[in-house]
Amino acid sequence: MNPPTDSRTGHPDSSDGSNLSDLSDRAAVPSRSNPADPFVAECIAALGASNVLITATDMASYLTDWRKRYIGQARAVLRPGSTEEVAEAVRIAARHDVALVPQGGNTGLSGGATPDESGTQAVLSLGRLRAVRSIDPANNTITVEAGCILAEVQDAARAAGRLFPLSLAAEGSCTIGGNLATNAGGTAVLCYGTTRELCLGLEVVTPAGEIWNGLRGLRKDNTGYDLRDLFIGAEGTLGVITAAVMKLYPQPAAQVTALAAVSSPHAALKLLELAQGAAGPLLTGFELMSDFCLELVRRHFPQMRYPFAQRYPQVVLLELSDNESEAHARGLFEGMMETAFDDGLVLDAVVAESLTASRAFWDLREHIPLAQAEEGLNIKHDIAVPISRIGHFIDYTDALIAAAAPGARMVVFGHLGDGNLHYNVQTPEGGDARAFLNRYQEQLNRLVYDSVVAHHGSISAEHGLGRLKIEDNARTKSAVELGLMRTLKQALDPHGRMNPGKVIGGVR
């Protein structure tokens, strides 16, 4: 995999399971679709022939997930160009009892947007819904359609003198609908929250083909059940998000980015407490990277400069966003670092002196998953634990893995400020990676997830459940919680046509 030239052409961080990049040369299974199929014929009449794909060649890119872990078949790929066309496609699918798999930019990491292998499902691509419907600077909102690329939403906000703070490695190709469907996190959750917290209203096509217009840019609306939150994070299993009202913020006057070397995750947590006390909401980024993570980047991307003269056990990337001035931000950061050095929390630190240097710091962080892929097959986990328990979780779980799989190398990095770790296991140096995964993957997944539960955490922090984590989710959630989820699914989608086999299981 080639490294991104900038953040917009990056790739998703990581996900659970092995990195099955060796499947990339597998052709998509030929479709069983037929232009004489009455379902296909009715879709062509409604959407136009060019927007109903039925050949294996045309459908191939829609049938494989980003990591190439899942390769499905489809009766057709539908590409509606408006909310009304989405609703009509859903109604046609209902008349023919065809299950639909909503899909955005297809950058998901848990198989949530990939059809199964039956060839009976249809992919519902939202890629043509690309309009920025309106921007309201006074209300600090932007209304966009589900197929808008995240970077395009950022650009539209910037052109209006505002900030849309959601930022993640796939922002050049992921869509806002997909971000909402998975409740994506990214690097700014510490200050601005997840996609759910950035959303004020939705437009949704229900499983019955009705359009719910909930595009109200209100911060207070106490008129009953919060329908919006039902659809966010549901991965298209309850309905199809077609548009959203998202929050905007003032553009910061300045940003200061720095790297700080610390002795352990425990020291990093103390630095986080200090930074939050000193900077408050100005602290917009706090990322943890282990020495081995950065060693992999140095090994596979030697052109990237390591900023310290020596290696340290852990490195933290901090970013302050200031609405006053760069001088104010730098003064705040320098005072904070002086206290951190005096308290023995920081071993070394370097502040970016330019936008180029700041981008280079973030590039180190964003190249970790790329370097890990270059190193070979691995076992990935996107988990969350309470921030206060992160240090103990890492110590405890590292020891369990070392005992269970001698020689395994830990690649631990992520959004320390919001408790989200990409807790990955690299095969032993020089070992047979495939044999290691065959022997240990199931055991280590269970070990990690059991430790997550013991530390009151979540087995999926920002990548969703999709197909990948259904069994583990069923094993780790309570019967009451699973029962409530199934009740919601049955109530909203009684025929099980919306993205079946995802999130809570059930294949039709």
From TrEMBL:
GO biological process: respiratory electron transport chain
Top-level division of the source organism's lineage: Bacteria
Keyword terms: FAD, Flavoprotein, Oxidoreductase
GO molecular function ontology, one term from the record: oxidoreductase activity
EC identifiers of the protein: 1.-.-.-
PROSITE patterns: FAD_PCMH
Protein name: Putative FAD-linked oxidoreductase
Native source organism of the sequence: Pararobbsia alpina
Family of the protein in this entry: Belongs to the FAD-binding oxidoreductase/transferase type 4 family.
Keyword Oxidoreductase: yes
Lineage: Bacteria, Pseudomonadati, Pseudomonadota, Betaproteobacteria, Burkholderiales
Gene3D superfamilies: 3.30.465.10, 3.30.70.2190, 3.30.70.2740, Uridine Diphospho-n-acetylenolpyruvylglucosamine Reductase, domain 2 (3.30.43.10), Vanillyl-alcohol Oxidase, Chain A, domain 4 (1.10.45.10)
Domain FAD-binding PCMH-type: 70-251
Cofactor(s) this protein cannot do without: FAD
Keyword Flavoprotein among record annotations: yes
A Pfam family the protein falls into: FAD-oxidase_C
Top-level EC class: oxidoreductase
Residue ranges of the region described as Disordered: 1-34
